[in-house]
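Notebook entry, structure prediction.
Reason for the run: the old model in the group folder had no record of what sequence produced it. Starting over properly, with the input documented here first.
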Amino acid sequence: MGGVQEEEFCAYHPSWDDPSCAHNLAVWVCGVDDLRLLPYKVSHQLGCNDVRVEVKAVGICGSDVHYVKKLRNSRVAMKEPMVLGHESAGVICEVGSSVTNLKVGDRVALEAGIACGCCTLCKEGRYNLCRDVRFFGSPPTNGSLAKEVVHPASLCHKIPDCLTFEEGAMCEPLSVGVHACRRAKIGPGKRVLILGSGPIGLVVLLVAKAFGATTIYLTDIDEKRLTVAIALGADGTLRVSSDMNDLGDEIVKIQKMVGSVVDVTFDCVGVTKTMSTALKATGSGGKVCLVGMGQDQMILPLTAAAAREVDVLGIFRFGLTKEEIEAGFKTSAVAGDAIKVMFTI
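New structure, fully documented this time:
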């Protein structure tokens, strides 16, 4: 799918002409490959349950790159300039009148999605699926790549002293890995295959290791990414191609590499070839978890997979309990800076 047509995009935002917000500079996407450092207006008066955060570190996600290159990410298109960023950490510099769990000076990681809190899904704890969620850096909501942002206190999680701000910002993508591994019920004895060794594939590797997976293997088209996977503890890797004609041979190579049945496959790419690989490579009674969203539509060999009772799971962002957030912090301390581009502000 192509980018947004030029006539559909309004290349102006009222924040830029407001002198009251001149101190709060942010990185705006103003057009295709057009990034600018411009003022960003946030509320001068805090809500009683909000906090003001001085942002210290922001990670760059693949979705950010899509907005810069195409003004869209999958089916979500920009209609006006937008501040990037949703993987962020910083310091509390002001608290609302009803906030009791945070104070000025606290170091926090920001949870990027603000759900309604009232719908059935929110009440069930699946707030990541809320239809009315507002998510940093996803149209029409501006992101966190700014000097300061205002955010609900309930979505600001204290960072342990052992973590840097950069590691704190890593907790957002790591939370995706935690959510995926929870959905797939990863634990001791599970043999895992991860398709795609980009940032999300690598955080799934880290989380699966933390959850006790017995063996973890990764594939990718890029040898450099596979080298990082080995450094982070993968049991083995396989370089593959993007050509569907190579699928059969690659399935044989995967089976030889793993040496046993794959219990769970995570597709961290999300295109026809990788999902076809996942469905064929996963053992009978196993699970395929679709993490990446590279294509809106795919033609897949579902009938054969269904006959082997291979379950297909989807995930969208994350919806975490307090315990799962703490697990993300623990894993972040291991991740380091090898797999994510990070802005330090």
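Summary: Residues 322-335 form the longest helix (14 residues).
The old model has been moved to the deprecated folder.
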